[in-house]
Design a protein that fits this description.
about 110 residues, alpha/beta, Rossmann fold, four-stranded parallel β-sheet, globular, PTS mannose transporter subunit IIB, phosphoprotein, PTS_EIIB_2/3
Length: about 110
């Protein structure tokens, strides 16, 4: 089960993207838990996730959140603004898988 966390300013603008990502994951037979939170909850929710993707409008928080992602050994990236704007769940899901596979051999810290 892949656990993908998305974070944006309030958690609202990513809800449609979450829905599109879930639909794509189901269409290819992947089991994935995908959820969105506001920036205030991102740090605590990271403990439950395999990856954190942040909305383009939160780019300024990447450095702060990267510290916690590194401690947990989970990948963190900013969602591509074009994919975000198009609500392209397939593209964002594939990017998450790519980042998680690169991170796989590093092992998860808890």
């Amino acid at each position: 089960m892949k656990k993908i966390l998305l974070a944006c300013s309030s958690g609202m603008s990513t809800s449609l993207l979450v829905s599109k990502m879930k639909s794509y994951a189901e269409s290819i037979g992947d089991e994935a838990e995908i959820w969105a939170v506001g920036q205030d909850q991102a740090q605590q929710e990271m403990e439950k996730a395999d990856i954190l993707l942040i909305g383009p409008q939160m780019r300024f928080m990447k450095k702060k959140l990267a510290k916690f992602a590194d401690e947990l050994n989970i990948p963190l990236d900013v969602i591509d603004p074009v994919a975000y704007g198009r609500i392209d769940g397939e593209a964002v899901y594939k990017k998450a898988l790519q980042l998680m596979s690169k991170n796989k051999n590093r092992g998860r810290k808890k």
